[in-house]
Amino acid sequence: MSNSLMIVDDSATMRKIIMRTIRMSGLEMDSTEEAGNGKEALEKLSSSPVDIILCDINMPEMNGMELVKKVRELSNCNDTKIIMVSTESSQELIDELMAGGANGYITKPFTPEKFQDKLSPFMN
Ligand SMILES: [Mg+2]
In angstroms, what is the span from residue 1 Cα to ligand 1's centroid? Predict the structure, then answer.
């Protein structure tokens, strides 16, 4: 069993902050990769799926909502868990993302404890 992670966010700084927060949370990932938008993420995932995706919503090229739907069409990502990470926190949007195939939602600002809470149920 292993735990592979992909962080999808158009901000390189935010990807670094998320990575650091994951480390602080004590969650042990076997591998971590990054993508700068949904399109880049989808290209990587189609050849090498991951266990957990942490996904921004507002991104150029392909946003988080589109990425969730596309990942759910990939047969090699059936078991992939998608957790959204965003400042947008309207219940309507969250409902729409969950209906589209997302598995969880973390609002910014986040803490190591929030990551621990939302990700540990999905860790192998
Ligand atoms: Mg963004």
Answer: 31
pTM of the complete model: 0.96
Interacting residues of 9 by C-beta distance below 8 A, sequence separation 6+: 15, 18, 34, 36, 54, 55, 56, 59, 85
The alpha carbon dihedral of 18, 57, 86, 75 has a sign of: negative
The Å distance, Cα 94 to ligand 1 centre, comes to 16
Q: What is the pLDDT of residues 60-83, one digit of tens each?
A: 999 999 999 999 999 999 999 999
Tens of pLDDT, residues 84-99:
999 988 999 999 999 9
| Complete domains list, the chain, with CATH | 4-122 (3.40.50.2300)
CA of 116 to the centre of ligand 1 (A): 22
Rounded CA separation 67/83 (Å): 12
Spacing of C-alpha 74 from chain mean position = 16
